[in-house]
Design a protein that fits this description.
Layout: E1 3-8, E2 11-20, H1 22-25, H2 32-41, H3 44-47, E3 57-62, E4 72-79, E5 91-95, E6 98-104, H4 110-125, E7 132-141, E8 155-160
Antiparallel strand pairs: 1-6, 2-4, 2-5, 3-4, 3-7, 6-8, 7-8
């Protein structure tokens, strides 16, 4: 899986948030799947006000305790206008301006291709010269390439240190 390098400006994303670990996600206390189900079941993709890109959903990993072995926050939501008032039920996470390695999945079942991408990213990050910063990483699900969850293509952005 190849990647590209991009520099991004800050993004403000509003949605539903949990705190978890990768270890917990491999066992009976997994929370991520339930958070995605709730986000869609309760209609947040269409009801979140002040969206900058309707139809685009983000899964943002932030507030890392350390690295992939520690706890982190996951917010599922939509990018929203800066400074706008939002309903109290929504949490807000800021994707910081940074340099990101962008990995694009193959087309396939959404859960499968995202899991494959993360497995690749974990291996990639062990290679010399590939340094994750753990300030924020995110998955971007656009309304076109992810319209059919059985034939989806997702971009995964990993914050990196460029030396």
């Amino acid at each position: 899986m190849n990647h590209t390098i991009v520099k991004l400006d800050e993004k403000r994303v509003a949605g539903l948030k949990i705190i978890t670990t990768n270890e917990a996600e491999c066992g009976p206390n997994a929370k991520i799947g339930a958070l995605w189900q709730r986000y869609y079941a309760e209609g947040f993709p269409s009801s979140t006000p002040h969206q900058t890109e309707p139809g685009v959903v983000y899964g943002i990993y932030s507030d890392y305790e350390s690295d992939e072995t520690g706890s982190y926050s996951l917010l599922i939501g939509a990018e929203v206008e800066k400074g706008e008032e939002l309903p109290a039920e929504l949490s807000v996470t800021t994707i910081p301006p940074a340099t990101y390695a962008v990995f694009t999945t193959r087309v396939g079942p959404i859960i499968e291709v995202v899991q494959e991408a993360w497995a690749h990213i974990w291996e990639w990050s062990k290679q010399p010269g590939n340094k994750r910063t753990f300030i924020a990483d995110f998955e971007r699900y656009d309304g076109v390439r992810c319209a059919d969850p059985n034939h989806a293509q997702v971009d995964v952005y990993i914050a990196i240190s460029v030396e």
